[in-house]
Structure formats: structure tokens, C-alpha cells
Amino acid sequence: MSVRDLNLSEPQGAVYYARTPLVLDMAGQGAGKTENIGVQSAEMIDAFPKGVGFIAANTYLQLSQTTLKKAMDAWFKYYGWKEYDKENPDGFFVVDKKPPSHFKRYTRLKSYQNTISFKNGALVFTGSLDNYKAHDGKEFAWAHLDETKDTRKEALTEVILARLRQTGLYYNAETKAMFWIEDKERAKDLGLVAYNPCVIHTSPAVQGVDWLLDMFYLNKLEAVVTKTLEDPNDYFLFEYKNVTVVIYQTYWNLENLPENYITNARMRLTEDEQKIYIEGNPFTKTGNEYFPKFNRRKHVVEKIPINFGSRIHVTYDFNVMPYVTQIVAQVDSVVKFYNKTTGEKLDFLEGGETGFEAINVTRIKIVKEFCLRPPQNETEQAAEVLGLWLQANGFTGDVAIYGDASGHNRITGLGALTQYKILRRVMAKYYANDVLADKANISVLQRKKLFNRIFEGKFPEIEIYIAADCTEVIRDFQHLKQGINGKHKEKEVDKVTGASFEKIGHTSDAAEYLICKLLKNYLKFID
Questions:
Q1: CA angle 120, 121, 123 (to 5 degrees)
Q2: How would you classify the pairing of strands 481-482 and 487-488?
Q3: How far apart are CA 303 and CA 333, in angstroms?
Q4: Positive or negative, the Cα torsion across 28, 21, 56, 69?
């Protein structure tokens, strides 16, 4: 059965033909993502019955009422498969029960709960990802996951991907044709590529999908994704290393939707909600952001030149998990022209346009991050890494040190030693330095207000820029949410020690300590 026979849209076809181990099928609601699950799973079941499959959704309710229902609709639509029972003795599959004796069996199970068994001997395990550890121990050849935006990263990385190891499925890299060959040496002689695909079908999440953006290398592609999705007749296709990404709008499935579906959806949704639920844009502001005025396209710069002959500002948050936080910044001043009426700002003017006046603009540039993870997650090691980096680049300036006020406190069991004393001692081997960190932190609310007003352009003489490779800093400013008393810092548990730690929020804390110190005079304008 060809893609044309299946009547798939262009982006659905891109998902269908993808042969990377990981595929992200992201789209607006009603775009046909779950149809893809039905089409692709049916092909695997029909052509490769010895390959065990896995279909999952975030919850069992979602799995039974949406994912499997639509998948089974597609099975019937394209293959004529119906569920077997007494009233339908010609049925092709049974759900959650021992298959009848006339069904072929390649594998016998003790229990068929959460299993779909097919007449040709194929098996598909089903399950929810909110109880992902229940799938540990299973082994399958392929997987389709529905609405994974609501799923914990660990469900995918620690369990599902580890279970994708049944051998036998291969593909031809040139033709993309798939084969089932149990002889590894024969497959190798034929030049085939071993294949255990995991296809993630999801719309963007209201609370953000930062771990998915990381997994699919999308964090630096916001501008091109957003630009592409401005055209409902276009879609974003990206293949890199081991992943394929397809992002598309609901418009691509218009002929299969009720009349006025999109028109009515746009009427009830806000502009930002439309970008999420219709356009499928994962970079849309979703509400309750801690830094709502941060604009990735405006404040993130692909490359920021570093002046290794000028002062370096280094700032810290003294956490150790998930990493020790060390951020490097530089500050300079340039003349720009500002129109007080419109708020427009220009780097240069020709012909002396009316309404603009020259202002000195202070640019605070976050140029580097050193977020060292275990076993390098100690203050002393971070300072050594920084020193060696500066030395390797011929640094001739001096270093100003900032960070959390707690760094002035004595470290338990180490006498009078403090974090800042450690930093000064290590850094002295490489360059002149001075600790400028306050002994009391500016309040969380003041810090938040100052940053958002700068990001919004309320202080035209101050600008903040972040280098594109400072991914942890950008993650904080992009995805951090408002909590009850400040930042909502999602908790995570260390797999080795069992200790709980805050997953994000550290890099923005460090940036706040630095910038609030540099701009202390501006705090009087914050009510």
C-alpha cells in the first residue's frame, strides 16, 4: 500500500518515510497525528508480525478513548481489520485477552492484559506513560507514543527507549524500504541498517516542552520554526543525527475536519493559544511564565564576540545538582538612537531622522556558561575550568565575582572557608580577581520586575543579550514558570543518591545576582 493510497498529507508522509530512531510528529490539534499511529502501526503489524510493537499514551483514559480508538479506526479504514468476537468470527485482533486457537502465535504470554493480539501472530503492547515503570522488562521492535508532551522525560529515556531492542527489523538507507531479517550477518551483507523506531506524536504543551526541544535539537531553531509555521501551507522538516522532526499546522488535515473547525477554534482561543493548538508552534508563550517579557528572537544572539582583554564578570548559584552554576558576562557601552514617541531604537541613523536622540546604551552580554555536572560539580573545579579557558584564550583582563549571598557563609566542617574564598584562591593562579557579591540578596520580586522591565524595553538605555550556546540560561528565561512565592522550580530525584534537587532556575538566579548588582541604581524605579 503506497502513501498515495493512504491519502496522507505531505507532513504525514514525511513522518511515514522517516527512518531515524527518533521521530517527532508535532502538530496542532486535529492535524492527523493519531491517524499516523494507526497507519504506521498497521503496516508494521501486517508486514512484520514477528516484531512486537508498543503503543502508549500519557494516561490509560487517553489511551483507550482516543489513541487506540483512532488507531483501530485507521486499521479498519485501510486494512479492514475488526476486533474478533463471537459475533465477528472473522475478526483480526483481540484486546486484553488470550487469542483464539486459530490465531497464529510467535510468542506465548502468561497474561494478555494490555496486549493486542493479531490473527497473523503479531503482538502490540499498550500502556500509559504516567505509570512508565510498569513497562520495564518488556522488549519490542517499534513504538508509537501519543501526546508525549504530558509525559516525564524519564518515561522515555529510562524505560521506553531501553526496551526498543528486539532485533530483526532493518531498512535500506537509499530506498527506505523495510525488511524483517533474523540473520544479522545476512542483513549486514545486504547493507541494511538495523531499525527500532520510536515515533512521538504530540501537540505542544501549555507548560512548555523543554526536554523534547533538547532531545530533538530544536532549541536553536526557534526563528526558522516560527517563520515556517507562519504559512499554513508550509511545514517544518528537520533531520539531524538520530532524529527527524516534522511540525505542521491543523490546516493540513482540513478536508477531514468538520466545516468551520479551524474558524471556530480561532474564535474561542487567544492568539497564543492559536499558535499552540492550531499552528503547533512549540516556542509559543503559554502563560504563567516567570519572565513573560523575554523574547528569544530579540534577546538571544547566535554569536557574541568576547573581548579577552577586558573585564570578565562571573556569577554563581552555589547548587551542586543538577550542575554547579557558573555564568560569564561582559559589559560594554554603545551609542544608539532612540525615539521616545514610538520606542524604536536604531544602531545608526542616516540623514538625522527627526524624533530620535542619541543615548548611551549599556549592553550586558551573557557570553558563556559552565554548568558542570557530576563528578565535576564543585566550586573549585568550576573555577579551574574557567581559569584554563581564559588562559587558553590569552585573557589579560581581570575578573569580578558575583553570586548568591550564601557564598559568604562559612562551609560546615571547613572552618572559616567560604565559597568565595575558594573562588578567589583558585582564580588567583590565573588572573586578578575581586569578589563584588552582596552579603544580602535583592528580593525575588524586585529581581523579577527589573528583568522583565529590561526585557520589555522600559529602560531603553539597558539591553541584555545571551549567546545562543548558553542553553541552560536560555532554558530558564524561556520556560521557567511562576510559583506561589517566586519561581516554580521543578523537582527531580538523583538516580544514584536519591536526593531531590531543583531541575531549573539556577542559571537565572545567577544572572539576577550579577545584573541586579550592576544595575542597583535602577531598583529605586521598581515599585
A1: 120
A2: antiparallel
A3: 18
A4: positive
